Amino acid sequence: MSSRRRSGLDAAADASADDGAGAAEVAPSSSPDHETSASPVRAHDRNDAGAWFWGGVVVGGTVMVGATIGLTRDVWLRDRPGDVGLWVLGTALVHDLVLAPTVTLVGLALARVLPEPARGPVRGAAALTGILVLFAYPLLRGFGRRAANPSILPLDYGRGLAVLVGVVWAVAVVLLGWRRWARGRRGPS
């Protein structure tokens, strides 16, 4: 290796020039005593993540711009900016002070009691169940229902929530079964 320190871009260029069969990029170490780090990062993994990130930025940004335009054009909301601000602030506080800590604690507790192969599907199903319940809460409580207009909130939202939660957990069970089956085919490790 030459005496000059290789940059991450130099290593990435070398990795992409290779045939790609096991080519790895070695990131420079932050230590002045070592020229390279021992942990390889595949160049194609980094590029795939970048494409997904930028795709998410484009889609998410488009949704946010559309929502902002819709918010500013809605006459009822435009006449009540304080209500909108209170709602945005309230949802941010509920997320940061209630939802995020609860999800973190439940995820940590599940990680302690579940075997490794079951952690992903069970934690995913638990998180989706929480999201569904949180989303369905106003419908379950009947907020906005009017006796004079039976077409407002006319469905059995409790049954709908139960069906969705059942589907989520059924998918989790299928994933667990598939993992167990695949692990059994590979044999003991």
Question: Keyphrases for this structure?
Answer:
189 residues; mainly alpha; two-stranded antiparallel sheet
Task: Round the Cα radius of gyration to an integer and report it.
Answer: 25 Å
Shape: extended
Largest sheet, in brief, is: 2 strands, antiparallel
Strand content: 5-15%
Mean pLDDT: 79
Structural class category: mainly alpha
Cα distance spanning the termini: 38 Å
The percent range for helix content is: over 70%
The unreliable regions are 1-27, 33-37
Total beta-strand segments: 2
The total of helices stands at: 6
Strand order of the largest sheet: 1-2
Order of helices and strands: HEEHHHHH
Q: Can you describe this structure in just a few lines?
A:
By secondary structure, the chain is mainly alpha-helical. It is built from six helices and two strands; from the N terminus they run H-E-E-H-H-H-H-H.
Any chance you could write out the topology, listing elements then pairs?
Elements (H helix, E strand, L loop, with lengths): L7 H10 L7 E4 L7 E6 L1 H31 L1 H4 L2 H33 L2 H26 L15 H30 L3
Antiparallel strand pairs: 1-2
Helix pairs in contact: 4-5, 5-6
Describe this structure in words.
With 189 residues, the protein is mainly α. Helices cover 71% and strands 5% of the residues. It has six helices and two strands. It has helices spanning 8-17, 43-73, 75-78, 81-113, 116-141, 157-186, and strands at 25-28, 36-41. A two-stranded antiparallel sheet has the order 1-2. A hairpin with a 7-residue loop joins strand 1 and strand 2. The longest helix is centred in the middle third of the chain and has 33 residues, at 81-113. The chain is extended, with a radius of gyration of 25 Å. Mean pLDDT is 79; it is low at 1-27 and 33-37.
